Amino acid sequence: MKFFELIVISFGVAMDAFAVSICRGLSMSKMNYKNAFITGGFFGGFQAFMPFLGYILGIQFSDYIVSFDHWVAFVLLTVIGINMIKESQDNCCPIDEDAFNLKNLLVLSIATSIDALAIGVTFALLKVNISFAVMTIGIITFITSFIGVKLGHDLGSKCKSKAEILGGFILIAVGTKILLEHLGIIG
Questions:
Q1: How far, in Å, CA of 114 to CA of 49, rounded?
Q2: Does position 125 have pLDDT exceeding 60, yes or no?
Q3: What is the pLDDT of residues 147-182, one digit of tens each?
Q4: How far is Cα 96 from Cα 86, in angstroms, rounded to an integer?
Q5: Could you tell me which residue, 20 or 93, shows the higher pLDDT?
């Protein structure tokens, strides 16, 4: 996997966390940079850990599916992308009084990083350098989540669905590219 593809995938999987961060920013009457930093840390940390976990799981059975791994990568990325696009239609950002408590951030971090677990399985099948991949995903998710909190506070919910749609299309495009490369249609 090329560096550019990894960056694109990193932004794609970060879009769920970005959208939720926007919602978190909506709940603030006054911008709190500490909460934005903590949110970015939680989301970035989980988005980095889950692909690592998926990679470990994927390595366990990669020898058994090497002949059709490109189809697995294509299907996983496409399903994740379609789900993100579907979720973009839900314009509701639940706001609660304690949006930044640790329990809420933990639950949201896990929920937004489930897709990254599947990405990690894909990384195992494609023999990606997992250390560099999780570092890249974690940093990009941290930055986009921090910005998401700020944007949510400043702009409201206008950006949420657009971010999820963009992330969905990015993942579908990367999955399609992987499939077409393995089938020899593109180089």
A1: 10
A2: yes
A3: 999 988 887 555 656 766 776 787 788 778 878 887
A4: 24
A5: 20
pLDDT at 7 over 90: yes
Could you write out the DSSP letters of every residue in 125-182?
HHT--HHHHHHHHHHHHHHHHHHHHHHHHHH-GGGHHHHHHHHHHHHHHHHHHHHHHH
Structure tokens at 180: 């077409």
Domain boundaries of the chain, sorted by first residue:
3-182
Q: Is 185 helix (H, G, I), strand (E, B) or coil?
A: coil
184: left (phi over 0), alpha (psi -120 to 50) or beta: left
Cα–Cα distance for residue pair 163/148, rounded to 1 Å: 10
Contact, 48 vs 134, CB < 8 A?
Answer: yes
CB distance 105 to 36 below 8 Å: no
Question: Looking up tokens 């500490």, which residue turns up?
Answer: 34
Confidence at 91, pLDDT banded by 50, 70, 90: low
Cβ within 8 Å of residue 141, ≥6 positions away: 10, 13, 14, 17, 18, 40, 43, 44, 47, 48
